[in-house]
Design brief:
Elements: H1 3-19, E1 32-37, E2 40-44, E3 50-53, H2 68-90, E4 97-105, H3 108-111, E5 127-136, H4 142-155, H5 157-164
Antiparallel strand pairs: 1-2, 2-3, 4-5
């Protein structure tokens, strides 16, 4: 798909959503995970795509798969890059390159449910999240590209949920005994 094709598809979608804004709200494809063994999980998408995650060896995993935390960073990077590409196409900007790297720091004590020296629970969440966007477009000024990234960050669903927070409704079906969950 060319940048022009992408821009045309987005214009069509915007036209439909202006006429019928209720069509914009929809259920997202669910992410399903099944425990495999130890700290290894099988992640499944409704399309049939599946892959495994695991923890590093020092936390009881094999260390040979990506971690759930890495998937969060990868999702943020991919989502933001996708929005930048979409916004660039909509503005007639032809990208020559686009790369997004996301890093963070975490305190493993939080994952393990430990307390700090003052007896307070250590936060399990990632902190100091950094995102580095590198992009180039022939004939486009750096300031315009920075503005493109700023606008894209305001429209990135994953960045928004991570920075603004989201209410998470946790429901638990606890099954007594050793009956397997289908």
């Amino acid at each position: 798909m060319t940048a022009r094709d992408l821009a045309t598809a987005m214009q069509r979608a915007q036209g439909v959503l202006r006429r019928r804004p209720e069509m914009g709200l929809h259920e997202d494809a669910p992410a399903a995970v099944r425990w495999s063994a130890d700290t290894r999980m099988v992640v499944r998408h409704p399309s049939g795509l599946q892959f495994e995650t695991d923890m590093p060896a020092e936390l009881g995993g094999s260390g040979d798969r990506v971690t759930p935390g890495w998937m969060m960073r990868a999702g943020l990077a991919a989502c933001t890059a996708t929005v930048v590409a979409m916004k660039a196409a909509a503005q007639g900007i032809v990208l020559a390159s686009l790369e997004v790297d996301v890093g963070s720091r975490s305190d493993t004590r939080g994952l393990l449910g430990m307390e700090d020296a003052d007896g307070r629970p250590v936060d399990a969440g990632s902190r100091d999240v950094t995102m580095h966007v590198r992009l180039a477009a022939p004939g486009v000024e750096a300031e315009r590209l920075r503005a493109l990234v700023d606008e894209s960050c305001r429209c990135s669903p994953v960045l928004r949920v991570l920075s603004d927070g989201a209410d998470v409704d946790v429901r638990v079906d606890a099954i007594e005994g050793e009956r397997a969950v289908a």
